[in-house]
Amino acid sequence: MDDGSKRRRVDPPARDAPSVDIDDSTTGGGVLGLLLARFDELKGELERSREETRAEHLETRRTLAELNDRVKAIHPTFDANEQLASVVFAHVKDVRTRVALAQVNSVWRKASKHASFLPASLDFTGCPPPDVLNEIETWPLRCDYVVGFEGVLDLPEAHFHDLLRQAGADLSKSSQQLELGYFYDKRKRDEKAMEWYMKGAQQGNTICEYNIGVNYFDGHGVEKNVDKALEWFMKAVSKGHTSALSGVGEVHALKSQHEEAFEWFKKAAAQGDSDAKYNLGMCYEYGEGVTKDIPKAIKWYTKAAKQGDDEAKEKVRELILVATIAVNAQGALV
For the region Disordered, what residue ranges are annotated (predicted)? Predict the structure, then answer.
């Protein structure tokens, strides 16, 4: 690294003086005149060289432009891979062929998953093989194939539903109305989800009834209405839906009816509902509907955490930390 100091440099060796015949009678200043004349000559040669080089560059660029135009004329702009794959998939109805093509390489796999490259109909004959899944189990697998297309909801609804029917779905059955409602739900199409949950609920589907209660409670796809939510939760409770018990408790808690909420959470927790166990932890932590009791709060949060509830895990860490700090502080005062 340069430290800013000046360094002594060795002087370069002296060069031999050029051998020039000096004619004292030469005009133009003798030796100086000869050197200036030579300089002008060399300068002229350099300029001529530059002009020739520029001319060559221009000619080369013109030639390349002409070649490029010829190539474009012979090979029009066309992404052979993706565009060709898209065209092919738009005409292939047989699902086994589509799947086989999708396994060729990444370009074909990508094209195979776009709904815009679906034909009007699909042929599911032999997919999956009868010896792998029985007919009752095949339609969900086939429907998963249909709903797995990117942008499938951008298709006209009639086309989308028709593809599901071709896959074997019977959209008049409540179980499949539930599946379609859940599909719309996951994609934040709340109003469509409610439409299909309602169809299933009209046929007495318990999960559809519970999901309607959740949507009324959260205001998804419908105006928020906790009384309506309670109505639908109670319908599901009457058919033994465990999570609906916790839903009823949450409605009471929202109405500040904490004692009633606590009792409903206990019923749901007794049947293993993790949300209810978390809610019991909340009740004990804040003393809502029951006497405040941090050890019991930790106990219920821990039960929920063991069932994979991340918020409950955080609550356990938080309360244990607070309790530890409190114990240490008390010990320091003794």
Answer: 1-27
Q: Please report whether residue 202 resides in a domain.
A: no
Specify the DSSP class assigned to residue 150: B
Looking at the structure of the chain, the number of domains it has is 1
The pTM of the whole model exceeds 0.70: no
Per the domain annotation, does 31 fall within a domain?
no
CB atoms within 10 A of CB 75: 9
**Residue 286, SS3?**
helix
CATH number at residue 276: 1.25.40.10
Residue 225 to residue 230: CA distance in whole angstroms: 9
Distances 275 to 83, 94, 244 between C-alpha atoms, Å: 49, 45, 11
Q: Please report how the helices 310-333 and 294-305 are oriented relative to each other, as an axis angle in degrees rounded to 10.
A: 150
In a domain, 293, yes or no: yes
Helix axes 157-166, 135-147, angle to 10 degrees: 150
Whether 309 maps to a domain, the answer reads: yes
Q: Highest-confidence range of 1-15, 40-54, 211-225, by mean pLDDT? A: 211-225
CA distance 303 to 299: 6
| CA 172 – CA 8 distance, rounded (Å) | 97
> Domain of 284?
256-333
Provide the CA 189 distance to its chain's centre, in angstroms: 17
Tens of pLDDT along 150-209? 888 888 899 999 989 988 888 999 999 999 999 999 999 999 999 999 999 999 999 999
Q: Could you list the beta-strand ranges (E) of the chain.
A: none
* Number of residues that make up the chain: 334
Maximum distance among all alpha carbons in the chain?
129
What letter would DSSP give residue 10?
A: P
**What is the rounded distance in angstroms from the CA atom of residue 246 to the CA atom of residue 235?**
13
